[in-house]
Fold these 2 entries.
Entry 1:
Amino acid sequence: MHPYELHRIEPGSAVDLSAIDPGRTPGLSGPESQERAAAAALHAENILAMQDLQYRLWAESQRSVLVVLQGMDTAGKDGTIRHVFGALNPQGVRVEGFKQPTPEELAHDYLWRVHRKTPGHGRIVVFNRSHYEDVLVVRVHGLVPEDVWRRRYEEINAFERLLAGSGTTILKVFLHISKGEQKQRLQARLDEPDKLWKFSMGDLAERKRWAEYQEAYTDALSRCSTEHAPWFVVPADSKWYRNWAISSIVRRALEEMDPRPPRAEIDPSKIHIE
Ligand code: AMP
Ligand code: MG
């Protein structure tokens, strides 16, 4: 089976994250070294295909793609951006990160800052965190009353329906890592001097709330995987697997869009260049 089908959360189904092993590598087979080599080769093919498809999306300039990346700290959002989107034409791709809201952002509804970053025609935008933080960190830390975050699932579904209806293909990817893998990656940030800048004491505080986050993710994935904006849960303990799975999902979505340059209004045979 293809990663698109393997990892897509069926709309309306209840997700059980504890039943999805973050170390699995479905869709590949054989000893690890063989799987790793296969994934790297297939990933490279995906990138070439994505480059062509991005060119066509840009030429068509009628539709757009929004990729939402979510995951616990160290899950690999930055690495995914580098490995899956780094070889696209920078003219047509943009990465938008969402951190703690500024006072100006907090003075508006939570979708205000998000809506203005969505892709215009012909473009691909990758969200490094997103409006889902407003039902994740906000829920876990009780930053708004429960009745406020509870109604957000429906609001988010309606918002995403608006975007989809306006020509935006939405792909939402949860990078699923294990608590053990996070421990190793946080430790690596402490051990390797050139990674230390990435370490934040805040990450340890969030790690203490691992179970609450998994619960919040479970609700977001279950309530907000829709036909118009599906969620994918990608096992992400292996970086090479994650890269291949995500490039496969993005490639498949672009192929299904099948973007085409507009039909030329000029007849080249009637034009003579002096
Ligand atoms: P990083 O992705 O490591 O740069 O961290 C960004 C931080 O901003 C994370 O701890 C997020 O949980 C936090 N953040 C993002 N969006 C929100 C939000 N809407 N409300 C509160 N915190 C947020
Ligand atoms: Mg961080």
Note: The domain at 31-261 is CATH 3.40.50.300 (Rossmann fold).
Entry 2:
Amino acid sequence: MTDHPDKLMDKLVSLAKRRGFVFQSSEIYGGIGSVYDYGPLGAELKNNIRDAWWEAMVHRRPDIEGLEAGILMHPDVWVASGHVGGFTDPLVECRSCHRRFRADELDEIAAGRPEAQQCPVCGTTGEFTEPRQFNLMFKTFMGAVEEEASTVYLRPETAQGTYVNFKNVQESARQKIPFGIAQIGKAFRNEITPGNFIYRTREFEQMEMQFFVKPGTEDEWFDYWSEQRMEWLVSLGIRRDRLRMHEHGPDELAHYAKKAFDIQYLFPFGWQEFEGIHNRTDYDLTSHQDQSGKKLEYFDPASNERFLPYVVETAIGLNRTLLVVLADAYAEETVNDEERVVLRLHPKLAPTKAAIFPLVKKDGMPELAGEVADGLRAHFPVFYDAAGSIGRRYRRQDEAGTPFCVTIDGQSTEDRTVTVRDRDTLEQVRVPVNSLETFLSDRITEASA
Ligand code: GAP
């Protein structure tokens, strides 16, 4: 189905654990459904993806402001957003296309014949989960007494924190429409069918941007953001031929969306949603204005008009991006008659930028290697490794996606030069210790978008 190596998902899960990218949560207790922990390399990779998004969406954009809203919000937020009302019916899910339906709206299921029920979306028959009273949102209680009045929800999207802060951000940052608000943060969904490793989980992190525009201009902004987001993904080194746009049909649209495109990625398990671009109209601002009784209109000084802006949203999962980055970077190849697994991570994203090896553990090489590692560590993450043959050490770093390996050999202690090996081309060059940091930094930045 894809041009990924055979059994790639199994290999990724195994590599992720072996090398400290991703662990199952609470593993020593047998794990907990669909929650994952990020190890030393995973936490670093996640931070690097997060930073790349923030840099592209906030630091480089005079028309976008950053925000960090709380995970817990006033419960009325979720009434206004449609999440409280929208997810309290008995639901069944088609195991084939993962669409959910109200059990009482499917004739055969309502009549007690689930085996005869055809999925209205994909047409598969008899593949429905048992009906269950299902709310997508996790509930918890605020305060000491577990009573209904203190029920709060773990947010299922970051977007609502942005809508309720629209006025605060617009006025404090003195932004004029069109402008955007970007946010990165945790979201929680009690998914009926999580799966495919970190693709769909119950706790995850979103990177979302809400762009507020004048009604009537939303279509051009929608096209603009669709293109921008695609180019950003390509700038991370993700192969363009594994990305495509999919427009939502009327039966796929979320309750808030008038128009939606998914950027899909060709995962090892097929084409699936990676990022969403949504025209949310003034749905959310109108609902919050009605529910809260507070005016959320924008006053346009140029035209002397007051209006509720329309919103074009870009929404991507950070964990899902990490999965795509790993899947896309993974390669198996033969080098000098030896098999190697290599993660061709973009140097900007690589958790470790360089590994430092003394060729042998004597003749002053470990001391110089230690000095080199300490010098570089002030600029970017490096890893010191003196254990095993040099070949084995290379293999370990190839698997971790480290773009450069620096070896300190006999010549190094004489003339203070080292060899730098490039993970992808396997070329080795000799570089003086005193210009090593600049040499590596230039290459890491050169490769960056
Ligand atoms: N604010 C709009 C929104 O939340 P969405 O399409 O439901 O839209 C946006 O989610 C993105 O968040 C998805 O494209 C996906 O990358 C990520 N995402 C959604 N649910 C997820 C889950 N259960 N696990 C991991 N990532 C998820």
Note: Residues 40-59 form the longest helix (20 residues).
